[in-house]
Amino acid sequence: MSKNISNLSGRIGLKKNLFEKISERSLNSKDASSIQEIANEYHMGVSTIHGAESFYEFLRPSHRAKKAFVCNGSACMCSGTQEILKKKLKEKLGDDKVGEMFCLGHCYENKAFHYDGENYAGNDIEKIDEIIKGEKIEQEKFFSKSFASTSFLMDDKLSNFDQFKDVLNKFINTDKQEIIKSLLDSNLTGRGGAGFPAGMKWDFCRKAESEKKYVICNADEGDSGAFSDRYLLEDQPLKVLFGMIICGYVIGSNEGVLYIRGEYPKSIEAINGCINSLKKEGLLGKNILGTNFSFDLNICIGQGAYICGEETALIASIEGRRAEVDVRPPFPVTEGLYKKPTVVNNVETLAAATGILINGAEKFAAIGNKKSAGTKLVCFDSFFNNPGVYEVEMGTPMKKVLNDIGGGFKEPIKALQIGGPLGGVIPISEVEKLNLDFQEFTAAGFMLGHASIVSIPKDFPMVDYIHHLFEFTAEESCGKCFPGRLGSYRGKEMFDQAKNKTAKIPLKLLNELLVTMKKGCLCALCGAIPTPIMNILKYFGDEMKDDMVKDN
After folding, report:
1. Across 142-213, where does the E strand assignment appear?
2. How confident is the model at residue 382 (pLDDT cuts 50, 70, 90)?
3. Of 378, 428, 436, whose CA–CA distance to 408 is shortest?
């Protein structure tokens, strides 16, 4: 069934793609017959279109009835600002007009909320009257700085269109094998968490035989604590777009798409403006710089589904399907968007590829080690004395990262969750033993991922934190597999009871549930959520002993 939908959706392709049409209908049309028009155009049943539409939080009537949304991400939760924020917004807008979003990417200042298509945070709530009136208010920008000997992600070597033209002219006249060799020699691995060699992925797709191929930028950065994609999309957009264009040149594609989460309106605006400017400059479109190479870019706006950060769910979403995870193989490089060979890279990977081509593979490879090479963006939340996003060399001791670059903490912190909701929860004493290294984190039972950091204060109950993780997973699971769909809700129920003091948690049953989810879930969301929960049980079990029973 999904293959048929992919092929039918692919008949029209990325221009006004099916997901965009479904989104526009849901957000703008009050005419119930419009869903039948889309179904007729794509030769699909109305139930298929409705099934996809109902999957997304932002397209549901209950969501559209709200006026403001408070960030319910882990960082805002730990900061303790959510309830005060909700109260102020409800006083202004009404109790039934305030909802929640996860996450708005303002972890460096918290108090984050979304109103009328814009995000606000920090002290912005004090200007809520001006915001409601539609007045523009001055907002603080997050701090960013490179601590690398050679900056690949934060330098200014691709900050204007003249520089872009010179570099693009050089590389679209460079042998494709030479570009792939540079990426392979650099030891660049995917920065989205999976860590697959980027050059190898491009090469696999280049060798796949097809009359049509695609490049996808996965900009669905939904993990709390992470705002590195926001930095790159808003402050270094040319690096990201250059990476996509060169990937298209290498693999033989003439079209790409950036899937940007709807929670990042400024990122969407920045990239859209940059794409339009590149087209005006003749650096995007037909026969770029007088060559035979043509390449165009599109934007697809996410509608509130965390699971779309998983590449097969993201592809399903663009195609207008329910954003459910597909079984692999086949992998996207051989059968991806519209069942055509596709490279899916996240924002930082594409920007890093650009930096490598500009600065040289040998400089990138010389930093860190073969499996954890180059530089990495690290995000510090509001509990740090130096909140912001920083470029750090792989292999740097975490003690130095936290204390010298991050400036240490404003108040006592007992643990860090690094790498988003799926990343490990690490006691401060343990994290200081590690280096900024993918393999070191994995070997220690944690996950570095994209290196976002959520600080858990000393007095924050770990029972509440596990409840938050299960609640998030239950809400954001794609629902395709039984262990994920049922396991996440069963875990939430256990911790509902613990929070309400109506029953204790059966430890034996909880451990069996976590093992089942880890081994049996189809996607990384439900399959990886046991990792931080097991970390908490291991390192903070004594804190929760009164909430648990060992035998049941």
Report:
1. 144-146
2. very high
3. 428
